[in-house]
Fold this protein.
Amino acid sequence: MKRGLAALLALAWPVPALACAACVASAERNRTFFIMTMVLSILPLAMIAGGLWWIARHARGRLVGEFEERDSPVSPSAVVPGRRNP
Amino acid sequence: MEPRVTDRVLSISTPRGRFAENAVFGMALAVFVEVMLFAGFISAFVIVRGATPPGLWPPPNQPRLPLATTAFNTSLLLASGVILYLAHRALPRRGAEAAARLMGISILLGGAFVLFQGVEWVRLIAQGLTLTSSQLGAFFYLIVGAHGLHAAAALVALVYFWSAMRNKRLSRPAFGAVQLFWYFVVLMWPVIYWQVYS
């Protein structure tokens, strides 16, 4: 009974948890915390985006002709009689 | 004319259909992780500094960090990075010997940076800034120490690859990987200088 009442009272008065150092800090600190959270969130995404951009930029040059060469028929002039031709 | 061993080894380009050599790609992943490590360190430092009441940072009873000497050190490190880039440019145009010469200068400048940083540390410890003396000391040695460790490791790698280049055993992917790591060390430092020393 007492436990139930205590639990009810606990639920009746919700307050901020204040569990981390940033939560109990000043507004200035909260602003710093927010900025650094944004930096740490955006930085890896920016690096991944940069990597993908780099790959896309280089892929154009690297993959040009990759499949064309493999799929292109062998020209008759390249066939040498008596030899194992591609 | 039969190409020399150097020409053959150093002229290997990225195989067709691949974006980067395995060594370079692996190093890029490592650099990604290292950037996040330093971002975490610097973020924690900035939050702790931001929580300090006005006028109490740096802590009044602690020595001030040497701005001017470190600015000179920073210029040495940046010059080292630029010269390594010039070595990279010189390799296909002027050959391995010219590139090795430039790489040697880059290593000397990087070594001077690490040496002067060590001298600065000894001076600061003598003045009372230690790992446990204050939050400034703790963060300073953590962040600058981690960077110094990376710089020293990168220098060891550079010396090894410089020796390989002189002996005409260096492959282009290995050179690319070690360059990437050194550029990371060089470019991370101005951020640390800006945040920690200012």
Summary: Residues 96-127 of chain B form the longest helix (32 residues). The interface with chain A takes residues 14, 16-20, 28, 32, 35-36, 39-40, 43, 46-47, 50-51 of chain B (CB under 8 Å).
